[in-house]
Amino acid sequence: MTIDLNASDIMGAALPRVDGPDKLTGRAKYSADNHLPGMLYGYGVYSTIAKGKITSLDTSAARQMPGVVDVFHHNHFTDKLYHVPANMAKGLKVDESRLPFEDDTIYYAGQLVAYVVANSFAKAREAALKVKVTYSEAQSVTSIKQARTAGVSPIEQKPSEKSRGDAEAAYTQSAYKHEAVYTTPFETHNPMEMHATAAQWEDGKLVVYEATQGVTFSRNTLARVFGLVPENVVVRTPFLGSGFGGKLFTWPHCIATAAISREVGKPVHFMVPRAQMFTTTGHRSATEQTFKISADAEGNLTSMTQHTLNSTSEIDIRVETAGRTAPIFYKCPNVDIANSVIQMNTGSPAAMRAPGAAPGIFALESAMDELAVAMNMDPLTLRRKNFTDRNQVEDLPWSDINILEAYDKGAAKFGWDKRNPEPGSMRDGKDILGWGVAACAWDAMKSSSKARVSFLANGKVRVSCAVQDIGTGTYNVMAQTVSAATGIPVEKVEVKIGDSDLVAGPLSGGSWATASLLPAVKQACENAISELKTYAVMDKSPFAGESEEDLTFRNGQLSSQSGTARSFSDILKAIKAGSAEGEGSTGGAMKEGYSSRVFGAHFVEIRWDPEIADLRVSRVVSAIDVGKIVNHKTAANQVEGAIVMGIGMAMFEHTEYDERTGRPINNNIAEYLMPVHGDMPDELEVIFLDKPDYNFSEVGAKGLGEIGITGLAAAIANAVYHATGKRVRDLPITLEKLM
Ligand code: MOS
């Protein structure tokens, strides 16, 4: 049997979070909430210099403090750990490739240089402050500008396969052209929940309560680090206070905590302080992008050149793939994409919400606006003109694309037709209004996933998988899928996730968890129903003697042609079976002959009061094309959250390093500016086109966690230009850049 999930109203229903009561009452346990019997507490000593060597490390005062058990640093235990080269298909990756305490070299400020273990957090912290480290310090480099001045050469990456035609020649010959450099700063992930690890060894088996976006990845990776079979590692993350990409893979503090727990023979608990979340657990690289774009007299794009440079650490080369969108998105015959990285004394960068696309589309969609201004063409008209229904790189049709409808619906709702293109011409009282538009796009991906569904004799249904809920509503979409497939109300569905011992599930990243899970959950339901039917015709069952093929399952009941109908729990009880189970498994393969993405458009109004230099975003209307919406409430919440993060990217966020010391200056959430309630637009409306993409999957739901942040900074920059006549190409758009 195959079930059509979308035949049920539950798919799409704006149900409140099934995990809401647990979160509200504090029953939900996060990683740092795990205080195990006999547990010890770790606290880090972090490098105060950004480049150099440790010359001495004096732990004697710390060791004499009451309650201190041990102090670890370089030369300790790294000979017992192994490197793990990244292999995404096998679920293996560390975010910083250096093992903790591997050498006495300092690569960045805030690097973990020692680790104190004591019988309480307070004692560990106090003792950590007594560890004396001396260094030989060298001049560090913590910005692209400083790196250039210091003569650090960018490392060119291999030529992009996305380039085509002859962009330079086409640019030279075109009627309209625009060239500019766009920059985006270092940004730091600041999820509410800080990174934390609680590790315990039981008979050679490692149990880790970890704040991770991937229990399966984390389990596989830790097993390799410690030379264990994966079955001897368990990673548990029943609840996660978000991550934004910063918790995708394993960081040094996690490895150190597990290693130290083994050394001391007791469970160990460790939290990364907020200040160190600005150093040791990733950030978005700073980027510098040279963008050239040209069009013929009618506005057809003739060339695009996007040469990107991004910061990376001295430990790891990480390309922030800012050139990922321009080559595929608009119809354009000549494209030249190149990426370089420049190494410096910052921690290893990581994926941060819509990695590559967030900075890359800022450049692309700003450049499109600048070209439209140069041509005296409406910026939305320019975008429509260059629409294509094919992936320009793969030369394949999109599995579905409704961006023209997104432009129409967004524009209608926003009132775009009332826009006067003249900068500074639209006013409301003292405020000058600026209206800007930008397209947004992100990948639509799937990964392999399993799921298990069990009908229980007590009348409940359990669905389980080694996935985790990053806060997006994974509990909900799993419960709703089971409910849609079985007709059993959501209240009777138990969702068990966040434990690597369950059947393997996807990372909560790349906006692919929901897209990967749902087909597996649906299949597991189908298989569980099959097993139930097998049981139903056994002796002592109400359907004994009937044939399985004659049974139909609806609303939690089996019925036969003879008119008998029984609930699954009655059937299980009758034959004294505890459960009927099924497993589902999807490989994550895409349908051949198509390419998939998600698309949309942001319309933004800003208000600029030049008298008091007040800039605020007053309206955002976003029309989003991400396929079928599984839950309208959590989906809107995701996109709204990403839009708020996009406002942060456009106007506030910027991790600043002191170029003398190489230390981040604003390493706390008081000084690292993010939007607060007062910065919220008066109107924030997300319109979902809600069209299932059946070429993508049988459910038609694509991911929506990341698309909202893409394009938003450009829409704001374009609106700021429209209000002020000033083009800001360097994020964030702070007031001094407008004065
Ligand atoms: Mo996302 S940056 O893949 O967590």
Explain the overall architecture.
- The strands form seven sheets. The chain has a seven-stranded mixed β-sheet with strand order 3-5-1-12-9-10-11.
- The protein is of the alpha+beta class and 739 residues long.
- The model has no long low-confidence stretch (mean pLDDT 97).
- It is built from 17 helices and 29 strands.
- Helix content is 24%, strand content 25%.
- The chain starts with 19 loop residues before the first helix and ends in a 15-residue tail after the last helix.
- Helix 16 packs across helix 17.
- The protein binds dioxothiomolybdenum(VI) ion.
- Dioxothiomolybdenum(VI) ion (MOS) binds at residues 213, 243-245, 248, 351-353, 355, 509-510.
- Dioxothiomolybdenum(VI) ion is lined by residues 213, 243-245, 248, 351-353, 355, 509-510.
List the helices and strands and how they pair.
Elements: H1 20-25, E1 40-46, E2 52-58, H2 60-64, E3 68-73, E4 105-106, E5 112-118, H3 121-128, E6 132-137, H4 144-149, E7 155-156, H5 167-173, E8 176-184, E9 196-202, E10 205-210, H6 215-225, E11 233-236, H7 252-264, E12 268-271, H8 274-277, E13 287-295, E14 301-313, H9 326-329, E15 334-344, H10 357-375, H11 379-385, E16 390-391, E17 396-397, H12 403-414, E18 427-428, E19 431-443, E20 449-456, E21 461-464, H13 474-486, E22 493-496, H14 513-536, E23 552-554, E24 557-559, E25 565-567, H15 568-574, E26 579-586, E27 597-609, E28 614-625, H16 632-651, E29 683-688, H17 712-724
Parallel strand pairs: 1-12, 10-11, 14-15, 21-22, 28-29
Antiparallel strand pairs: 1-5, 2-4, 2-6, 3-5, 7-15, 8-13, 9-10, 9-12, 13-14, 16-17, 18-19, 19-27, 20-21, 20-26, 23-24, 24-25, 27-28
Helix pairs in contact: 10-17, 13-14, 16-17
Dioxothiomolybdenum(VI) ion (MOS) is lined by residues 213, 243-245, 248, 351-353, 355, 509-510.
